[in-house]
Amino acid sequence: MNEQTPFRLPAIEATSNAALAARLRHKIDHKTKPLGALGALEDLALQLGLIQRQESITLREPQMVVFAADHGIAAEGVSAYPQAVTVQMVGNMLAGGAAINVFARQHGFALRVVDAGVAAELPAHPQLLPRKIGYGTKNLCQGPAMSRDQAKAALSAGMHVLQALPGNVVALGEMGIANTSPAALLLARLAGTRIEDATGRGTGLDDPQLLHKQDVLRRALARHPMSQPLDVLGVLAALGGFEIAMMAGAMLQAASERRVVLVDGFIAGAAALVAHALVPAVRDYLVFCHRSAETGHRQLLARLEAKPLLELDLRLGEGTGALLAWPLVQSAANFLNEMASFESAGVSQK
Ligand SMILES: Cc1cc2ncn([C@H]3O[C@H](COP(=O)(O)O)[C@@H](O)[C@H]3O)c2cc1C
Ligand SMILES: O=C(O)c1cccnc1
Predict the structure, then answer these.
(1) Residues in the chain with pLDDT values less than 50
(2) Taking the domain 63-328, which CATH number applies?
């Protein structure tokens, strides 16, 4: 692919459908419960029904995909852990030992790990999809994290990975030491959030380390001034990560296929921000599973007008928050599908 290569984003249909929404609302409101009593689960059931264009919901073969990559900005001392942890954790995931493996087994998700750009050779493994764009991004304090071509290639790879998956539900997660930094920068650039509000402790920085990270990110942002009009691909190339770009591509493709997308924490949220900036209709297909403890996630969710399902002070990523919310998604589908109505159960309405 070169700069002239045509690059096509998938067409995404907004889910809005007034007639179906009214039928779903009616069905939800006539279940045997006080009006609105299932709270956020009711909004979720409505969202799922609109995604599937049905008054009952079928959730099939849920898939978990973890995108892994390294980040040149790790050299600036913005993470509490060394870069080598990325490849080591990919090994752990392929051996079945990471938190995401435990939850994927628990909830019946098939799990794949995508090498989006880990800075090491990875031996072949049946659950590993080799889609390496590079051996980590460049240090974005010194120049763009990646070329525009690499950004396009990563978005495309994410789309293709998604296209090949079965089922109609996909959860997306990531692994990449230092990736809370590009995520914070994307939030700052795409949503106008101040660096001090976008930057968190990630894997566990102490106070002086956090101040250092903010300093690094402030300098990095200044190095990549904003263009008018906003050039989203340029922002992604300047400030992004290979796994973030691939996740954004996967979200766009999943939405174009009307799949339900379970969005994990802050970094997956940054990918959602990119995907939304590219094709706003993607938003309709995204289920925001939790609000992580990472500073900035609140603003990120507010920007996307998202009310997360859970708030557990998680700060792990990998997709863990998405799978923890899965039983709620199932419950939303099940109450819509199975719960009696006032009429069918002979219960008096007020
Ligand atoms: C052992 C270990 C397992 C992880 N699993 C996810 N992350 C998470 O932490 C990293 C982001 O935080 P920061 O920007 O501070 O590096 C990412 O790899 C993310 O997936 C982990 C981090 C570590 C250390
Ligand atoms: O919310 C997240 O995705 C997150 C937060 C801290 C570290 N890793 C991931």
Answers:
(1) 1-2
(2) 3.40.50.10210
pLDDT of amino acid 5: 54
Residue ranges with strand state E in the chain: 63-69, 110-117, 128-130, 169-175, 260-263, 286-288
CA 79 – ligand 2 centroid, Å: 12
CA pair distance 253, 273, nearest whole angstrom: 15
305 is catalytic: no
Ligand 2 pocket mutation, candidates 175, 199, 267, criterion most atoms within 8 A of CB: 267
Has this prediction a pTM greater than 0.95?
Answer: yes
Query: Looking at the predicted complex, does its ipTM rise above 0.90?
Result: yes
Domain boundaries, the chain: 18-58+334-345, 63-328
Structure tokens at 112: 């794949």
Instruction: Give me the CATH code for the 18-58+334-345 domain, please.
Output: 1.10.1610.10
CATH topology match: 18-58+334-345 vs 63-328 = no
Q: Is 316 in the pocket of ligand 1 (CB under 6 A)?
A: yes
**pLDDT score at 7:** 79
Percent of the chain whose pLDDT exceeds 70 = 98
Q: Is 129 exposed, middle or buried (0-12, 13-18, 19+ CB in 10 A)?
A: middle
